[in-house]
Fold this protein.
Amino acid sequence: MIKRQKWIKKGAPVLVDGKPGTIYKVTYSGDGPDADVYKISVQLEGSAAAIQYDPAIVVRLKETSVYEGNDVININTLKAKTYDLLALDPEYIEALGEMESRFVGMAYGPSGSGKSVWMLKFANHYAGKVGKVLYNMHEEGFNKTFQDRANKFNIGHKNLFVGNRLSFAKMVAKIKANHYRLVIVDSVQRSGFTFDQLVELQQMFKKRKLAIMMVSFGTDLGKTDRANDLLHEADIKVFIKTGQMTVMSRYLDQPYHKTLFTPKSAKKSIQPSLF
């Protein structure tokens, strides 16, 4: 028996997108007593009585549960496995690689290097291409600096939401109440975000397609300010310093380098544009 799963809003009807003539049964199970998203389990059955048809919502049959709970699988089974890859614009795929929907990343560099601006632009793009984004801003919060930055770089997608110095517990509550596809913590130093909290976040939402991005202070490539354990856990590592970006990503076969902006001088730099 083949099983497929998909998370949707509670009470929403489902259209099963399978092979012509295949009959499926759909069952619902909640994610806790106060959940606003339900897990849809679709399996081959002899009756389709439980299926509600609605072309607005489609359950794409991509991933099978045969891999869940198995410690050992055949190499050819692994080679045949399909992954949920993010359809970002070419400039981001070139820089970061073809990412899975549950990736972990970090942008780091010295103060004023442009890492938060790069992250904000990435968040805006992600909101438009993938889904809702929660940007937990601990550096500026809801102040004029952040407003000016959003205006200057034309940040304003309707799926991008900003949190004002949310604690870890409050951030978790917001994620539970909303189906975010990306959560950003800026910065890990100011928020006190720890390695244990990252692991907890991954485990808590392992059945959702939630990506996690972090922003950290860093002095040099591979060196952060008390956050190396988080950096080592990241699938994507974006280092920005004096206008130069270096990306180390497990989705790329080699490091990626790009000039984001040109500093006025070696002592004082500006951020006229990113990308």
Observations:
- DSSP finds eight helices and 14 strands in the chain.
- The chain has a mean pLDDT of 78.
